[in-house]
Amino acid sequence: MANFNVNVFLADVKSTYIKEKFVSLDGDDVVKVVRELGATDEDLDNLKTVSNNLFPDPTLPFRESRNGRFELDFANSKLNRIEFQPFVLSVGEDFVRHDSGMVRSFRGIGDDLQLNRAFQALLLLKAFIIKGVKMKERPSLNYSSDSLVSTVFNLRTITTPDLIGEPALEGVHADGVDHTMTTMLGKENLTDDSAITFIHDMREKNGTRWNEVNPNYRLGQAQHKKFLDTLLIVDHEIKHSLSPVHSMKKDIRSTRDMLIFFTRHPAVEGHVSHSYDSFNLHKEIPLSIDYPNFIAAS
Q: Name one GO molecular function term (predicted).
């Protein structure tokens, strides 16, 4: 720890992210980052078990979920919790699934997660990495805005003897945002080939199963294996898919717990999410924290 410089480490990560359009971070390094940003042993321990407090997902029977919306306010160097809004992803955003275009409402993230300093540090880590990064622009987003919305999902994917959990039932896809970050919180009873993330060229057809893709369009792969293993993707420049969750012991339930951070510029009129893109502060469970100096000055 004494030789770990969070500024240098994150600068190197950001450089790789800009060059390659995706970057995978070892969880041990991410633990060092969040500790440098104020997380305690208690925060880290609590983060490992926060997924025990999830609720049935509105459209997927093998998943439990919560979500919350956060403003990355780069103009004022602040991170703010913003009010609940329904969530929608469309075919036009490279998301092809039975619930594409459906307006979904999730149970909200509570203080057990948002007040956890390790969780806050993950949001700050992402803010630093994506700040000022130029990418292919999505239609109907306001790229002149200094405020971005980060919709965070706390998800548990479940496999039982009767049900196969699919971290990406939609096959090859993008997430309709500018930047996607995925972080592992925990897993139980998974085989070694479970939930591998495959990275694809934009020419790959949306909805293609992970094992039916064109190998010429595959750009790489990553796998979340341990606590805080993290992957970042420039979402409108590459696509991704995932293999299912399989049980090592077939008669016992398997679980995979993740945080998913979808971050994009605000929607304008004509975007499928324009009606659900308020930046009003959350009144019931507020949060507002300042960026550390190295983020504010970057």
A: dioxygenase activity
Q: Walk me through the domains of the chain, giving residue ranges and CATH numbers.
A: 6-297 (2.60.120.620)
Q: Is 91 helix (H, G, I), strand (E, B) or coil?
A: helix
* Residue 67, both tokens: 């979500």
Block mean pLDDT (10 aa), the chain, length 298: 81 97 98 97 98 97 98 97 97 94 97 98 97 96 98 98 97 98 98 98 97 97 98 98 97 97 97 97 97 84
Quote the pTM value: 0.97
CA distance 183 to 262: 12
Give φ, ψ of 139 to 5 degrees.
Answer: -65, 145
DSSP class of residue 216?
G
Q: Give me the DSSP letters along 247-294.
A: BSSTTS-EEEEEEEEEEEPPB-TTSTTGGG---PBPSSS--EEEPPHH
Query: Which stretches of 21-176 are assigned E, i.e. beta strand?
Result: 22-25, 55-56, 63-73, 78-82, 147-159
Amino acid in position 104: R
